[in-house]
Amino acid sequence: MPLTETLARVDADLAAGRVPVARQRLRGLVSSFPDDLTVRRRLGEVYRLYGDPAEAGRWMYLEEDRDAAETSAFEARYRTAPQRMRALAWQGPESRAATAFARERLAAVRAECSDAMGRPVDWDSVPSAERADGRNSAVADSLAGAGCLLAVLAFLAIWVNGLVALFD
Questions:
Q1: 41 and 97 fall within a common domain
Q2: Angle ∠(109,75,25) on CA atoms, nearest 5
Q3: Interacting residues of 50 by C-beta distance below 8 A, sequence separation 6+
Q4: Which residues make Cβ contacts (< 8 Å) with residue 103, sequence separation at least 6?
Q5: pTM of the model
Q6: Taking a C-beta distance cutoff of 8 angstroms, is the pair 58, 78 a contact?
Q7: What is the pLDDT of residues 103-145, one digit of tens each?
Q8: How far lies 73's CA from each of 60, 123, 143, 159, in Å?
Q9: For labeling, which of 5, 27, 83, 91 is most exposed (least CB within 10 Å)?
């Protein structure tokens, strides 16, 4: 569905009070048009209706007239530069941004993320999310997987033991 047609449906959804549907449509548009600042602004406005300042700040982050409290809430929720970089969901170089302010913000976030990672990063290879304590989530994921494997093996051992006892 074309961008203008979807935005018209968003307007109709909002007029009818279907805020969750409008939000979902806008989320899809941001995925399809990550460099469209108008779509990001509209999504920020919808999150403002929800009363979610962190998400409003997330989608208004590239706007010069953004609300400082919402920006602070976004930065508090996404504490590290890699987390912020992933949350912004930008694709391609900063030069695709329509305004100088957005290009500067994107470049600043990318530079901060590069410093934090100790290597250059770009928007097309955003680092994997980190945990709040700064450790890579891959370690936690590996430990969780090992725990699940042990639980399955224990269940199988009990089940086999039960079958042996049944036929003994």
A1: yes
A2: 85
A3: 19, 23
A4: 94, 95, 97
A5: 0.72
A6: yes
A7: 999 999 999 999 988 999 988 887 665 443 344 556 667 777 8
A8: 12, 23, 31, 50
A9: 5
Residues 125 and 147 in one domain: no
Please state, in angstroms and rounded to a whole number, the distance separating the CA atoms of residues 136 and 83: 11
Question: Are 90 and 104 found together in one domain?
Answer: yes
Which tokens sit at 108?
A: 């600043």
85 burial level (CB within 10 Å; 0-12, 13-18, 19+): buried
- 48/120 same-domain check: yes
CB 118 within 8 A of CB 77: no
Q: Are residues 66 and 98 in the same domain?
A: yes
Put residue 92 in one of left, alpha, beta given phi > 0 → left and psi -120 to 50 → alpha: left
Tokens, residue 32: 């399809």
Q: Per the structure, how many domains does the chain have?
A: 2
Q: Residue for token digits 């410093």?
A: 115
Please, is 86 exposed, middle or buried when counting C-beta atoms within 10 Å of its C-beta (0-12, 13-18, 19+)?
middle
pLDDT by residue (tens digit) across 60-96? Answer: 999 999 999 999 999 999 999 999 999 999 998 999 9
CA 4 centroid distance within chain:
24
